[in-house]
Structure formats: C-alpha cells, structure tokens
Amino acid sequence: MASFFNFNRRAGTVRSVKAVDVGTRSGTLRKHLETTLGSGTIEQAVLLPQGEDRNEWLAVNTVLFYNAASVLYSVLDGTICNDELCPIMNAGSQYEYLWADGVKVKHPIKLSAPRYVNALFDHVEEQLDDPSLFPRGVGGKFPKDFLMVVKNILKRLFRVYAHMYHSHFRSILALGMESHLNMSFRHMVLFIKEFDLVDDRDLAPMNELISRLVD
Questions:
Q1: Which of 46, 93, 169, 170 could form a disulfide with 191 if both were Cys (CB 3.0 to 4.6 A apart)?
Q2: What is the pLDDT of residues 64-94, one digit of tens each?
Q3: 121-132 pLDDT, tens per residue?
Q4: What is the rounded CA–CA span in Å between residue 9 and residue 212?
Q5: SS3 of residue 198 by DSSP
Q6: How far is CA 37 from CA 25, 33, 89, in A?
C-alpha cells in the first residue's frame, strides 16, 4: 500500500493483477464475461446476466477495468510518461486534472501525470482490497454507497485513458498497442453507458473518439 503521501512510487513498476474474487458468485460471473467476450460482442458482454446481482456485476467488471488500465499504463510509466514530459495530468489542452482522494489528500493538488496516475492506482487498489467496500465470499454485503464508489473509480480510470490517448497515442501506435487500447477503452465506455456510471461532462475529453468507437 502507499504511504501517507507516497507520490514517489518507482516509475515503471508493474502492478499485480487483481484477482476477481469479490462477492459470492465472482467465479461464475467472470466465466460468463470471458465466454461472452470470446464468442460474442462487447455490447453483449456488458449486459447484466439474467438473474444476477447488479452490485456483484459492477464489482467484477470494476476489478477487470482496473487491471486493464494498470497493465496498459505500465508500458508508458516512467519512460514515455514521466515527470519531465508530462508535468501536469491532462487530457489535451482544455482538461487538467488535480488530485484528491478525499481521505489522504482532501484538497486538490497539482501532480505530474505519472504521479497522479500512480496515486490514483494506489487509491483504487486500497478500495479493491477493502472487504467493507468489495466484500469476499458468502455473507459479505456491499455498502449502501457502493454505486458511488464504483462511479468514482471508473471516472478516475477514464482519466487515465484520456491522458494516454491525448498525450501518448503516437507512442502507443509505435508500440503496436492501438487495438488493445481501443478494445479496452471501448469495453469500459460501453459498460459505463449501459449503467450510467460517469457523467457526460466527465466523458467530454474523449467525445470524438467515443462517437467513433461506441455510438
């Protein structure tokens, strides 16, 4: 876990992929998702399976979206995206993001893009590892504000994608990552839209691409 103000995580560190073991039926839901993605369309994969709990579906997908974003960004972290090249966390010239998690950092502060993203990932990891937010096994209950927790996580993960697209797309093309990035982003945006999880104003930096990939 991050220390109190740990904005100096070693750049380029590959994070552990989170196990999808939240809720009581995470294994079943994960297999359903993998099967649908493998044999159907992403549009089908985001739909709540019949008879399943909405919160468990949100939880399983939130973990998967975190894993996808962290793996993609790890390729850029510290080399292509560093303090010198990305002194602010932004999505183009019109959108700049300040960091605050409401717990350790209550007042928004300006961070370089890699420090912002790693602080964001640290915070999301802490939430995913907290069984009071993402319960494990039989008997675990989701908190009353679980939907808001998921909304905040996905809003922040969206910002990571927005920065990668606006600031590093040429590098992503050179690395041959375009199709993987587009597929991961499209999957998350379709899920966001299906369950109305992120406000339109927060999606605005990527409206043009969203209209091409999703609408």
A1: 46
A2: 999 999 999 999 998 999 999 999 999 999 9
A3: 999 999 999 999
A4: 35
A5: coil
A6: 18, 6, 32
For 4, what's the count of Cα atoms within 13 Å in the CB-facing half-sphere? Answer: 1
Q: Residue 175: what are its φ and ψ, rounded to 5°?
A: -85, -5
Helices (H), 85-138: 113-128
Tokens of 206: 């990527």
Buried b (16+ CB within 10 A) or exposed e, 38-49: eeeebeebbeee
Q: What is the pTM of this model?
A: 0.86
Helix, strand and coil in the chain, % to nearest 5: 55, 5, 40
Joined tokens for residue 135: 């319960």
Q: What angle do CA 107, 127, 76 make, to 5 degrees?
A: 80
